[in-house]
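RECORD TYPE: protein structure
NAME: Anaphase-promoting complex subunit 4 WD40 domain-containing protein
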Amino acid sequence: MRGHTGAVLTLDFAPDLGPEGLLFSGSADRSIKTWDPWGVNDTPLPTRSGYSCVQTLTEHCGSVVCVRILTQQNHGLVSCSLDRTVKTWYPAEGRALLLYPWFLPAQSITQPGSSWPSALCVRSGTLFVGDSAGGISVYAQSSGHENAIVPESALDIADVKQLEDSIDTKFQFGLRRKFSHFHSLGISRLELIADNCFVVSLGYDEKAQVIDAISGALSSTICSASAARFISCAWDERDHILFLGDVAGYVHLWNIFEDKLVGKKQMVSTMPLAIVGMYSLSGTPTGDFLLTGLANGVKQWLCNRNVGYVNYSGHSDAVVAVVVIDNDISSFADEEDDPAERMSELPAFTAAESAKTCQFFSTSLDGSIRCWDSYEMKESFEFEEKDSEITCMIASKQFHKLFTGHDGGFVKVWSIHAGEMSTLLLEGNGPVTCLAAGIVRDQEVLLAGSADGLVSVWEVNHDSIPRGVPFQPSFLSEKQGEVTSLIFCKGSFLAQEGQEFFVVGYFTGQIVIWSFAKKAVVCSFKGHSDAVCSLALHGCFLFSGSDDTLLRMWNMFNLPETYELGVLRPPSSPSSSGSGSPIVCLDVVPYRGLVLSAAADGTLIVWDYTTFEDENTFDACGKIVFHTKWEMLHFTFCAYTSLTLLFLIEWMVASSALRAGQTAKP
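PREDICTED:
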C-alpha cells in the first residue's frame, strides 16, 4: 500500500470498521490515511491499485507520531503530532448504510510549553499523552469548550458553531492532571496492560515506568540492566508478564506484581539490533507466540510455558519404546492431518484440556509395559510380559489397544483396560523388528516387519484381528534382508484419494514404497550404504536415518519418481550427527514441522529442513534449531520410537522461555 510521501510513523487497526476492518496510518508527511487493506471484495487477490485509501486527514501541521482508535467512543480517532497538538476525530453521522465511515475534526488540544506530544494511549474515556519533556498528561471527557476548535475568521463562526453542536461530548476532552516526575527525558511509548489497570511508559532515560491507570501512582520503575533504551513492550495476558524490547536486541521478561526480572534473552544478534515493536499472541490452538518487529522484518517466536520434566523410574532394564494414547482415540484416526489444523477446530479451552487426557506407555527389556499419566507425571498401572522379549511397540489408531512385537516371531495385542488380549503369529521364525499402523479406507491395518525380510498385514477390528498374509515388498525375487524400519502414510498429498502406502527400510540400505491401491511396489531405491534405522514423514517429504550416520531427505510427491533432496548435516561434518554416530531415531514436531534426530551416542538435534545452516555448503541442507548431547546416555535402534523424541526435546528446552530458528544451549 503506497500513498504517503514520508516515513510511516504509526499504525492502528480497527477490525469493526469497514467490510473487514480499516487500517489507520500516520506519517511524517503530516497526514493520516485510512486504508481498506483487503481491497475490493470481488477480487480474490487485489493488485497494488486495488487497495483502497478511503480518506486522508490533513489537519496536522507536523509529523503525525501516534494514532489510536477510540473504540468505546463510537470508533473515533485521536492523534498527536510534532505541531504540539492532540486532535480528536469523529465519524460523521448518517453513513450507517455506506461502506466506510467518514471522519471529521472534533477537537484540537495544544500542548503547553515548548514540548510536543510523542506518545499516547486510550483507556475508556481517558487519554494518556506523553511528551518530549518526559511528562504525562491525563485528559478526560469534558462537555466544556476550553479546547474547542477556533475559527480562522469571522465568516467561519456560524459553521464552527453548527459543527460544535453536532459533535458528541464523547469526543471532547479536558486536562485533568499532569505528571512530570516519571521521566527525566522524553517518552517514546505508552502502553495499557493488565486489563487496562496499568500504563507502561518507555522513556529516553533508559527507564520503563509502570503507573496505576486510575490513581496515577507509580507502581514500579524498571531500569535497563544492559544500559540500552527500551523502545517496545507487550503484555502477556496468560502469565501476566511484561515483555520489554530494547535497542540492543534483548527482550526482558518482567513480573510487575512481584517487581522482579523473570528472564532476559537476546533475540537479535546482527545489525540492526533494535526491537522496534512487539505483539503477544496467546491462547491459539497451536500455541502462544511473540512477534518482534525488526528494522528489516518480523520474527515469530514460540513461547514455552511451565515446561518441566520428571525422571520416571520403574523400569529395571533398557526402555525399547514409548507410545501415546489419547482418551479420545478418534483424534488419532487421521494421522496425516496436521494436528494444528485439527486443534484449531476446537475451542482454546478444549484444546488445552486435551493435553491433560493423554496417557503414554513405555515398554522395556524387563518385560513390563507401564502406563504414565502425562498430567500427574506418575505411573498409573503396568502389564507384564513373561513369554518373550519385547522388541517394539505401537498404539492402535482407532481403538484403546497396544501392539508389541517380540523376538519369538509374534505380535501381541493388549487392551489398555484389560491387559493381554491375543497373539498374532508370523510365518517363519524371525523376530519382529518393527511395527506400524494406519487407516486404509476406514479400516485400520497393522504392519509388522521381521528379520526374515517379510512384512505381515492384519486388519484391526474392535473384537478381532483377521489373519494377515505375509509378503515381501520388493521388485526382486531375492530377499532384501532384515526389515529395520516401517512407516505408514495416508498419501493425502497425492492427487487422488485412496492412495495409502507404506515405506520399508532394510538392513541393506534399500528403501521400498508399497501401495495399497495397486497392491504392489511402486518405487524401490538404494537410500543408504548401511541399515535404514528410522523413517519419518512430513507431508510429501520422507526422512531416513541410517547406520551410515546420514539423515537423508526425499521428495515423494510423485511416488514412482521419488528422489533425494539432500542430507541434513552440520556444516563441515561428514555425518548428520556431527559425531560420526549412527542416526537411530527420527520424528517430526507437530505444528512446526521440525525434524528431530537422535544418534546412538546420545546426540539430539532439531532441524529446520527448509533453510540452510551454511549457504556456502550446497550439499548440506537444514538449519540446526537445537543441539545437545547426553554424555551418560546411549541410544540403540529400539531405544526410542516416534513420539518419544517429542517428549525428550520438550524436556531439554525447558530452560528456555522463548525459542525460534536458532541454536539453543542446554
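COMMENT: Confidence is low (pLDDT under 50) at residues 145-164, 331-356, 635-666.
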